[in-house]
Amino acid sequence: MSIIEDRYRLWSENPYFEEEIRQELSQITDPQEIEDRFYTDLEFGTGGLRGIIAAGTNRMNKYVIRKVTQGLAECVCDHGEEGKQRGVVIAYDSRRYSPEFALEAALVLAKNNIKVYLFDALRPTPELSFAVRHLHALAGIVVTASHNPKTYNGYKVYWDDGGQVPPVKADQILARINARESWLGIEPMPLEEAKSCGLLQIIGEEIDQPYLARVQELALHPDLDAEKGKELKIVYTPLHGAGNVLVRRALSELGFSSVNVVLEQELPDPDFTTVPYPNPEIPATFELARKYGYEMNADLLLATDPDADRLGVALRTPQGDYIQLTGNQIGVLLTYYILSQKKALGTLPENSTIIKTVASTDLADDVARYFNVHVENVLTGFKFIAEKEREMEEAGWGTFQFGFEESYGYLAGDFVRDKDAVIASVLLAEAALYYQQVEGRSFFDVLESIYQQFGYFLEDQESLALEGKRGKEEMALIMNSFRQEEILELSGMPIKRFDDYEHRLSKDLSTGQTYPLKLPRSNVLRYSFTAGGFVMVRPSGTEPKIKFYFSVKADTLADATDRLRKLKEELMHRITQIRSV
User: Fold this and answer.
1) pLDDT tens digits for 117-176?
2) pLDDT above 80 (res 47)
């Protein structure tokens, strides 16, 4: 009997697994479906787990939650009584089984005599990061699948500084998970017992208040917000997620009283019935917000994803339409606003630093340099931004001002160690108000002035879904093909530098000289153009796809648009040729 059959029989027959799980499995007739559910364990990566909600070892369910949490519990116990007393904070979003999975994790930890702080209702992921730091906890868990489709849920682990668990600690947790061969015998503590013996503490407003206070401290013009905030008309949609309460409170308490929520998307809905899937990057998520915007003549449309760590933005054009900004444009606008205003206010330290990912626009580097601000570029993934911020603090160099990634993640301040849509909403609303009320300009005017000063940078992305074993082989084929050929130009644009993060090597193509790269090893290739911009290729770390990032720079919008179109056409044609071999 194979391991797949063994596992299937155990899960479908053993009374340890509840009747609902056994019933679900007994009704599967497709052998391939059984194989996919049991051929492996759902992978615990650097950040945690993410998968389809269903029965099986390769799915998200409470038994997978139990096993992973037991592995985490054993790592907490390695820190002795102090570690167990410091405990673990748990938050969750609006997805199916999020509250149940969060409680399951809490009670498994309690069974290990570990103190648990569990939020009383759904909360933003960044507030979990804040709570870990605020409560001086050893670790944190948030049950979320971020902006994935409704069939998914996930489980992210944070460590004592409030950032996602670092690779070394993640490996230790994974080793404990893998060391336990049996799926049986992990019994959570009964709820009432966990409460009565003080191991489970329910938290809520006592964390909300200090978190919101710190968010509001980031406002650069609080007097303006209080006096004129009502003049800015905002439409906000939480996309049925965790941002609803705190985003609105943060804005309201600062003075932004003209915030209209999209009623159809206000309340939690695990089926996300009003959107194809709850990702503020895609235009369809703004459909209802646009309707509200036209009715109310709103200046700004804001959308946060289910766990409120990403923020999407649409602006009213001079013609009265609404245009969605890219993550890079939002990042550049916030970079420019924060640095220019702090410079004017005399509060920009000499050692100021912004942190961004190598996949994000180089326009932000040019803006930062203009204000004599240092730029740190890190690998794709917000955990690397948080790690770099921590490194700066511990080593005593640089003062963190702002961090962002092109995939709609932004952070300011030193009290959260993950992207934060609550913070981003406040800063963006204030920036829009400042330009409107003080300078008589719109965000479009500001963005245009930035482009005129630094050049027109345009970015785009393409991705190829490559599923299964064959997909992995194709991804390897594409990456190897790029590595084996020295590419000197793309679409007629000379390449200045080639960075291979897997081999941690950079090559100056004009001189042939090579330099070591300091960033961690990662399967990423980046080609920087002499005239500005880049192409980057990387397999996704969380989905079965390979991603292509494009960035061009030109003196006019028309030239940049033309260059971007030609570059994408050439590169995707090259990919088609590689795959056809």
Assistant:
1) 999 999 999 999 999 999 999 999 999 998 888 999 999 999 999 999 988 899 999 999
2) no
CATH of domain 208-220+230-352+408-454: 3.40.120.10
pLDDT, position 467 = 78
Domain 456-580: state its class. Answer: alpha beta
Exactly one of 12, 94, 146, 352 is catalytic; name it.
146
Question: What are the two backbone dihedrals, phi and then psi, of residue 475, each rounded to the nearest 5 degrees?
Answer: -60, -45
Backbone angles phi, psi at 208, to 5 degrees: -55, -45
Domain range list for the chain? 40-203, 208-220+230-352+408-454, 456-580
The superfamily CATH assigns to domain 40-203 is Alpha-D-Glucose-1,6-Bisphosphate, subunit A, domain 3 (3.40.120.10)
Dihedral (C-alpha) 240, 384, 157, 46: value to the nearest 10 degrees? 110
Does the active-site annotation cover 425?
Answer: no
Q: Which residue, 508, 575, 510, 515, is CA-closest to 545?
A: 575
Predicted TM-score (pTM) of this structure: 0.96
Q: How confident is the model at residue 46 (pLDDT cuts 50, 70, 90)?
A: low
Q: Given this chain, do its domains 40-203 and 456-580 carry the same CATH topology?
A: no
